[in-house]
Amino acid sequence: MPGSRAGERLTAMTTPQHTDLKATLQGDLTEAMRAQDKVRAGTLRMALTAISTEEVAGKEHRTLGEDEVLRVLVKEAKKRREAAEAYTGAGRPELAAREEAELAVLEQYLPAQLDDAELDRLAHETVAELGVSGMGGMGQVMKALQPKVAGRAEGGRVAAAVRSALSG
């Protein structure tokens, strides 16, 4: 029956394909809404919106992979951290507290951050693996190191560790 095949295709096209992290966020959003946890629900809604925006960015809609969803969450967490610092510097502690509360929610979904010693060790290992010396090789080392730290350290911290490894 041609009508039933068309229905199957339509179902396949409209059935959302979720990554595990995205599905976890959606499930936790539902729980937060039931518990009437406004901060958690608002933060998760904002994170899911950022993920959806990233999925439709570009020429065609695509489903983000696990690492891409994680990258979006890292970016959102960085925005919250920077906003909290800006509000604190501007003497607006109530707004800074709200941003920090949102950051705390997002951090529950991020992998544990690397401490400075571990980051320095990875940077030195990568420099040794590549046999690079001098600041001219920084881009090469960063390119090799980024996948190793994936979401566990901000780019500025990684760059500082690479600079330290290359200069010393």
Indicate the topology.
Layout (H helix, E strand, L loop, with lengths): L1 H13 L5 H15 L3 H19 L9 H24 L3 H15 L8 H15 L7 H12 L5 H13 L1
Helix pairs in contact: 2-3, 3-4, 3-5, 4-5, 6-7, 6-8, 7-8
InterPro entries: Asn/Gln_tRNA_amidoTrase-B-like, GatB_Yqey_C_2, YqeY/Aim41, YqeY/Aim41_N
Organism: Ornithinimicrobium pekingense
Protein name: GatB/YqeY domain-containing protein
Short description:
By secondary structure, the protein is mainly α. Helices cover 75% and strands 0% of the residues.
Structural overview:
With 168 residues, the protein is mainly alpha-helical. The protein is 75% helix and 0% strand. The protein is built from eight helices and no strands. It is globular and about 55 Å long. It comes from Ornithinimicrobium pekingense. This is GatB/YqeY domain-containing protein.
Features:
single chain; 168 residues; mainly alpha; Hypothetical Protein Yqey, Chain: A, domain1; Arc Repressor Mutant, subunit A; 8 helices; globular; GatB_Yqey_C_2; YqeY/Aim41_N; GatB/YqeY domain-containing protein
Range of strand content: under 5%
User: How would you sum up the major sheet?
Assistant: none
Q: What is the overall number of helices?
A: 8
| Apparent shape | globular
CATH architecture descriptor name of the largest domain? Orthogonal Bundle
Q: Can you tell me the CATH topology of the largest domain?
A: Hypothetical Protein Yqey, Chain: A, domain1
